[in-house]
Design a protein that fits this description.
Radius of gyration: 21 Å
Largest sheet: 5 strands, parallel
Keywords: DNA-binding, Transcription, Transcription regulation
CATH class of the largest domain: Alpha Beta
Strand order of the largest sheet: 2-1-3-4-5
Shape: globular
Organism: Granulicatella balaenopterae
CATH topology of the largest domain: Rossmann fold
Distance between the termini: 61 Å
Domain SIS: 125-265
GO molecular function: carbohydrate derivative binding; DNA binding; DNA-binding transcription factor activity
Number of strands: 5
Domain HTH rpiR-type: 2-78
CATH architecture of the largest domain: 3-Layer(aba) Sandwich
CATH superfamily of the largest domain: Glucose-6-phosphate isomerase like protein, domain 1
Order of helices and strands: HHHHHHHHEHEHEHEHEHH
Mean pLDDT: 88
Number of domains: 2
Number of helices: 14
Length: 281
């Protein structure tokens, strides 16, 4: 059975404004939507029953009942996964069980993120990376670690990159950006105030923006030119940002690898040139 939430995320850009209102309400309130009648859903999304039905059919569902059943099944699956994954860190748990649970969490994060990949969007991002004068990386907290990892990879192949751990310096970087730069924003929630401030500055300077963020509508996602979605099954209040970090680095690794593949000869030369080998004593 189709995953209704993934289909909504994938098809959102093809929807009309009123259909997007339905789509966004379901993505933001999936549990409420799973129990709403078609009239309640229309009221909550400021649309009409006919718009709700039209939106659902664009997702490939035959009708409202089929969609609701698929949504209920998906939410039950997520709850089951969340319960299993959220208990990965337990008091006095055996190391063997911890290994099994973290492996399951990591695998699920990669598989779910892979389902959200859009090849056309990735190809456009690779082209933007090549054409840009500078890559500007932004991230706070655990997302900064993912951004820094990408920064180090692109730096090795001689792309001019900037990153700052201090948020004030990130904001200055955004204010000094130009349309010839490319900003790569890494944020799980898409609501972090500091990152949002940087994104607004980037927009003022007409700097292209790629957002690596969870597949739920957010201020950062709305302001970005290209979205690369990570799995959204990790709760906002997280114990270790495990799934989100794995998903983020998975996406940046794909971006980097796709870029290297397109510009293979030059990148290979740069990787050889920048390899640091310590003398054996």
């Amino acid at each position: 059975m189709k995953n209704p939430l993934i289909h909504l995320k994938e098809k959102r850009t093809e929807l009309s404004p009123t259909e997007k209102s339905v789509c966004d309400y379901i993505l933001l309130h999936p549990r409420e939507a799973s129990t709403d009648s078609i009239h309640q859903l229309a009221k909550e999304s400021f649309s009409s029953p006919s718009t709700v039905l039209r939106t659902i059919k664009k997702m490939g569902f035959n009708g409202f009942r089929q969609f609701k059943n698929a949504l209920i099944i998906e939410l039950a699956s997520q709850e089951s996964n969340f319960t299993r994954h959220n208990s990965a860190i337990k008091k006095s748990e055996s190391t063997k069980n911890t290994i099994r649970k973290i492996t399951s969490l990591s695998t699920t994060a990669l598989l779910e993120t892979s389902k959200l990949m859009e090849v056309e969007t990735l190809d456009r991002c690779v082209t933007l990376i090549h054409k840009s004068n500078r890559l500007l990386f932004f991230g706070i907290g655990a997302s900064y670690c993912s951004a820094k990892d990408a920064y180090m990879k692109f730096l090795r192949i001689n792309k001019t990159c900037l990153i700052n751990e201090d948020w004030h310096n990130q904001l200055i970087t955004a204010r000094n950006s130009t349309p010839n730069d490319l900003a790569i924003i890494v944020t799980y929630s898409g609501h972090t105030e500091e990152i949002l401030a940087c994104v607004k500055e980037l927009k003022l300077h007409h700097t292209p923006i790629i957002a690596i963020t969870r597949c739920i509508p957010s201020p950062v996602s709305d302001l970005s030119d290209y979205k690369l979605y990570t799995t959204s099954q990790e709760p906002i209040v997280r114990s270790g940002a495990i799934a989100s970090r794995i998903s983020q680095q998975y996406i940046t690794d794909i971006l980097y690898s796709a870029y290297v593949s397109v510009h293979y000869d030059n990148c290979l030369q740069q990787l050889t040139k920048t390899q640091i080998i310590k003398d054996k004593k």
